[in-house]
Amino acid sequence: SCRKLKKKRHNLSQLELHLFFTKASVRLFIHKVTAPLHPKVDVSHPHILYSYIPFVVLQLLYEEWASYSVFYKYQPIGLIRKYFGEKVGLYFAWLGVYTQMLIPAAIVGVIVFLYGCATVDENIPSMEICDPRNNVTMCPLCDQACSYWKLVTACGTARASHLFDNPATVFFSIFMALWAVLFMEHWKRRQMRLNYIWDLTGFGEEEEVSVRNVKKNKASPDHSHICLFYLYVFKYNHVLAPTQSLDEKVKLTCSDRLPAYMTTVVMMCLMISVTFAIVFGVILYRISIKAALHMSSYPAARSNIRATVKTTAAIINLIIIIIMDEIYAAIARWLTTLEVPKTDKSFEQRLIFKTFILKFVNAFTPIVYLAFFRGRLVGRPGKYLYVVGSYRMEECAHSGCLMELCIQLCITMLGKQLIQNNLFEIGIPKIKKLLRQRKSEMDTKQEEELNKTLRRHEKDHFLGPFIGLNPEYMEMIIQFGMVTLFVASFPLAPLFALLNNIIEIRLDAKKFVTELRRPIAAKAKDIGIWYNLLRGLSKVAVIVNAFVISFTSDFIPRLVYQYTYSPDGTLHGFTNHTLAFFNVSDFQPGTDPLEPMHLGYKVDMCRYKDYREPPWSTTPYDFSKEFWAILAARLAFVIVFQNVVMLMSDFVDWLIPDIPKDISLQMHKEKILMVELFMKEEQGKRLTMRERNTPQQPRSRPNSHTNCV
Amino acid sequence: SCRKLKKKRHNLSQLELHLFFTKASVRLFIHKVTAPLHPKVDVSHPHILYSYIPFVVLQLLYEEWASYSVFYKYQPIGLIRKYFGEKVGLYFAWLGVYTQMLIPAAIVGVIVFLYGCATVDENIPSMEICDPRNNVTMCPLCDQACSYWKLVTACGTARASHLFDNPATVFFSIFMALWAVLFMEHWKRRQMRLNYIWDLTGFGEEEEVSVRNVKKNKASPDHSHICLFYLYVFKYNHVLAPTQSLDEKVKLTCSDRLPAYMTTVVMMCLMISVTFAIVFGVILYRISIKAALHMSSYPAARSNIRATVKTTAAIINLIIIIIMDEIYAAIARWLTTLEVPKTDKSFEQRLIFKTFILKFVNAFTPIVYLAFFRGRLVGRPGKYLYVVGSYRMEECAHSGCLMELCIQLCITMLGKQLIQNNLFEIGIPKIKKLLRQRKSEMDTKQEEELNKTLRRHEKDHFLGPFIGLNPEYMEMIIQFGMVTLFVASFPLAPLFALLNNIIEIRLDAKKFVTELRRPIAAKAKDIGIWYNLLRGLSKVAVIVNAFVISFTSDFIPRLVYQYTYSPDGTLHGFTNHTLAFFNVSDFQPGTDPLEPMHLGYKVDMCRYKDYREPPWSTTPYDFSKEFWAILAARLAFVIVFQNVVMLMSDFVDWLIPDIPKDISLQMHKEKILMVELFMKEEQGKRLTMRERNTPQQPRSRPNSHTNCV
């Protein structure tokens, strides 16, 4: 009857196992690996043979997966899943797909960057800035201490910022938006395929089901289920110790939960505001240090003020981010336990959600500030905006904040990855391990000889516990954010991500194989909430990039100038067009430079980068018509960009089927099989019934009639 | 073994049948309905009893569904599905949900409209316009024929346009955007429920499956399947006559299809351009007729020029739309047959897609023109934009084009619905029926007495054939577009739609029950491509409404004026602020009015609605700073509106689960049952196996080991 079918489906997973281990290969590995430990293994008996598979798998993983020498190879996902369970398998599969997809992105990114390098000498604006002939006197960058300066001195920055602020970046950010969609689709398909291969297509909320009905017939020899059940309960106790007792109670009412939720909301807001405060602190640091350096009389210090300040500030940011990350993680966990979620699934989801928000805000606040607020709140000469006393808000380098943004992103990405990888993912576990060994009071000699006698799982006790995949995922998601959100300002981000991930995969592999105890195999059909987070990020990325291009970069002003104001359709005169005039006599008392003759001649008009009316107009220093026109153009660009990209993404999404053709065909075939089986049996049943009792017979007709009359 | 389970699932559909017809009720109806025809029915025998169910169902439908008297009742979807099949059932279910969801929308819309009516007297701009004290001399509306006019004369329009151009409409369009999402979600859930009740949850591409495996064992007494199979094939022949032969051939190559696709693309473009041409023609009509009327010396004609022109133009548009609709439908069908799709599914999809594009463009081009282009391309006094010779592009009434847009929408919706419903859906079928009867040469008397003797299905031959649901769906989708796309400009749209649909449901019901032959029952799991079209429309609606509010209405200019330019934070002086000055001496020769003294005094400065520099500025008649500032504000509003609404929609979408709680629970339970059954049998099998052959035994362990070690 149905047995054939069920058997087929049941054996699917075993089948895969057999793919990896023909008896021969197992025997081979036993001789190679475990023979030394247990010399007289009777490999002839299949039962004993199979009992060694785990060791063999581990060995295989160690050689074929957890070493840098094979970084160019695909991961043995099947084996990973076999040994660590579906959840871990899916993580590494996802990481693999992500890394793979990063390759094209990185290549295009590098090309874009190279294009920037190639065209830096044809770039008219920077040429104009660097041309000493048109000597433009700029207004001082700080009160009193600083004096007027020549625009030529900003030549370096101007040239550098062209590398990241050129038309190619527009194309690149569109490309990356589509890339993100393609990545999603690609992963969906891969997941579907894995689900099919791993025989999870039927597996939904049945985790609980299989558990429950095993509870009933524990006697059944279906080990896999019981095993799953034990794992499940154990994991549950493990993660949810505080809430365990509550599970027997009646469902909690809203009023019970209210205080917890209140605490959560309040704490979250508090944490976020703390982040903002920190960022603001860094800004203050930057302002004050800059002022101080300006006052210092060493020309050496003055010369590379900007660079120094930027770099130090970025590093400080980085350190703070890394420290706060750990703190926030702890807080999120604490808050979630307060909420007492019912199942561990919801626990995990809530935890992830909180952690994500906190870490995301923590990682991106400084970047967002740099991208969108820095230099916008400056005010104008003679009427600057002052914060906490007499600190003037910092303004950007002459050619936009893009350069700063780049440095920030670069340092954050590289630093975060390097430090977190090396320090937290290699260092800490090693130290922990050492401590653990120290605890078990025995000198190395004894230990060694014990090692010989110890069984594998006994040795494993010395390894660190498995603390779940969420940190790994979180790290990757934040990285994905870096890659997609501000890619318009930093086309090399994908490259960095790629390099990091190539290491990351093997690093995690090593950790899983050698550093940590074997995790309890957990079944999972997909990567759960992480997928939604990715999707959300890739949606936000579109609008963020639109704003970066139109507001942070000078792309739009250049276009507008070239096609409306320029006398000869080129960018000649653009620099002059972007500079407003300021009459030095309009300085507020006490803010004018102490040494006005610094440049060697009397200055009565200085320039500053803004679109404002000149002093001699009827409304001096008001925003000029150009300002509003360009603002309109910028906003228009955002609208067009966002909608075009969204349309394209939707189109791509619609174009690619979620289920690979071959898989869907396979499933279809199986369904046919199922239906046929059912029908055959039905038929058989009918016949037997008819023989037994005739009155039953007409019962089969009516529905046929109602359909066919 | 699995039988119990399968039986349960099989009987589900029969179960529902029994819900409707206990033997008693059937007997009752037989006596009431069919007894007269066949007096001596042996109702005791269940077989004969059931053979009457179709008639009973039809009778039930006729009384409980296809009459206006029950318009307030829910439709008997179960019965409909029973008699007409799932596809028709789903259509009416969808129509029901849509109509139901329209009720709140209509209510809110009416409230918004009433708010407009209530606040029309507090509306400062219209008060200023209507105030005769500030007598503003406006520039002539056409060359020569027209003369200067007083702004006061535009009082009526100003007051009227406030009804549709007030802050409430902003709220309403946000509301409608969310409404659309809610509607989608609600329908998804309803569909899920129906799928479960109708036992379609397993039904995917298996339509072919069930067919195929019935082919093999035709002998099987499972009538329902065979029946489905016949229906299927018949329908296939019916719809796909031209392509039928090709199905046996090998798959067509790209090169074979290329010409067809080329033709399609070309024709589509052609058709669309034809639509544009027609709209442009109507515009020309409007311009010329206006000029002509202006020249006419009858004061009566002059007085209500605008109204006349608007209305006639709208009606012409309407008629053209309705005629073109029919033509386009034919063309789309022809093009699709050219493409020779493989299955009838793809045929239908392609047809729908083409028809949708053509009809959509046809229906919305005039509206889009009115909303976004009318009055934008006018030019300015002294430098007007002229089309085809000396026709000046038409400009809007003083207070925006919103009023015209409203009238257009109103007439289109009402007219389209009334005409299409009454003429095409009632008239045509009746006429067809008459003709068909005429064809069968027999005078009425003979026919009547034949009627007595004729069996039901014989009589049905005189009814019209069933031509599919696509026209019905299409009509509804276009209506949905009207309701969502331009709701910002016409809050009464949902009300009209609601009223129309209440009639529509019963109209279609009547048609299906009395006018048409019983359609061949077709299985369907969802409403297919229509859902995607709806989704697409509701996405487009957000951006369209954003543009309507910010560009077509005066909402943004009012805000900007109130919070930036206004001396006293109110709207006083807004009207004056929106009017630019024009020096009559700057008229192009031959365009100045023939009778300049029309108003009784010499005019040297006239006003026109635009943000331009006054004649005495350094750059006369250029766009002023206000223009750019307001443009920026408008664009900013679009960005904010779009993203906020999209965010809210996504949130709502995420908030509401696609599968109703109870249904998912039910399915879960069934899965448990399934798993338990499988396990029991497995267990039994294992035991028997163990008894038979012991070497087999260990085969069951390994996968347990690999999971549990």
UniProtKB/TrEMBL annotation, chains A, B:
Keyword Magnesium: no
Keyword entries, A-Z: Membrane, Transmembrane, Transmembrane helix
Start and end residues of each Anoctamin transmembrane domain: 80-670
Entry superkingdom: Eukaryota
Polar residues compositional bias, start-end: 694-709
GO molecular function terms attached to this record: intracellularly calcium-gated chloride channel activity
Ranges for region Disordered: 686-709
GO CC annotation, single: plasma membrane
Primary location recorded for the protein, binned into one broad class: membrane
Keyword check for Iron: no
Compartment(s) where it occurs, according to its Swiss-Prot or TrEMBL record: Membrane
Transmembrane segments: 91-115, 168-184, 265-287, 307-331, 351-372, 476-499
Membrane topology, from the record: Multi-pass membrane protein
Family: Belongs to the anoctamin family.
Protein name per UniProt: Anoctamin
Organism: Gouania willdenowi
Gene name linked to the record: ano1a
